[in-house]
Amino acid sequence: MASLSFPALPLRTLASTSSASSYSAAPLLHCSVPARLSFYSSQRRTTCPKLRCSRQFTVTCGTAITEINETQFNDTVLKANRPVLVEFVANWCGPCRLISPAMESLAQEYEDRLTVVKIDHDANPRLIEEYKVYGLPTLILFKNGQEVPESRREGAITKVKLKEYVDALLESISVS
Questions:
Q1: Contact by Cβ (8 Å): 80, 115
Q2: Contact 59, 103 (CB under 8 A)
Q3: Which of 2, 30, 82, 100 has the highest CB neighbour count under 10 A?
């Protein structure tokens, strides 16, 4: 039986588009069998399907977005002295992972005018119920402890449309 060999391919994490997030697939190969990557948490696990062994590694996300929970929501969002864009996401949500790089870029670009936080849907059921989050990802802008009217947006969005959405919201609440 012939042995399979796979070339080392540059890969990018779903959380970042910077060149610092590139890495080689070569370390993920074991016994010439490609390892499977799990993109469901910050702790990435690779599994060798041939030997059923696994290795764990961490993909570093940018620091512009802070993940918060129900206990931090009041202080971080409702008592904030500037607008806060809340992104409701889930680890299993494909569109959430899809917009992650755009959200990270937006958070860095607008860091002087806006705070961006992420809330895990599965770990924070009280907030999901309170804010009636039905689709993921859901974006809601808060200012002065209140949801900004008509700021709610559900589903994936391109980086350009995301920027237009945030610019329009910030203009509507007079933040320049």
A1: yes
A2: no
A3: 100
The question of whether 53 is a catalytic residue gets the answer no
- Side chain identity, residue 132: K
The phi-psi region of residue 150 (left if phi > 0; otherwise alpha if psi is between -120 and 50; otherwise beta) is: left
Mean pLDDT for the chain overall: 77
Cα–Cα dist 67/27, whole Å: 29
Q: Is the pTM of this model over 0.70?
A: no
Contact 70, 122 (CB under 8 A): no
8 A C-beta contact, residue 137 and residue 156? yes
- The active-site residue out of 48, 53, 61, 93 is 93
Would you call 61 a catalytic residue per the annotation? no
Q: Can you read off the two tokens belonging to residue 27?
A: 């370390």
Q: How far is CA 132 from CA 27, 79, 95, 157, 166, in A?
A: 43, 20, 19, 20, 21
User: Of the residues 31, 48, 53, 96, which is catalytic?
Assistant: 96
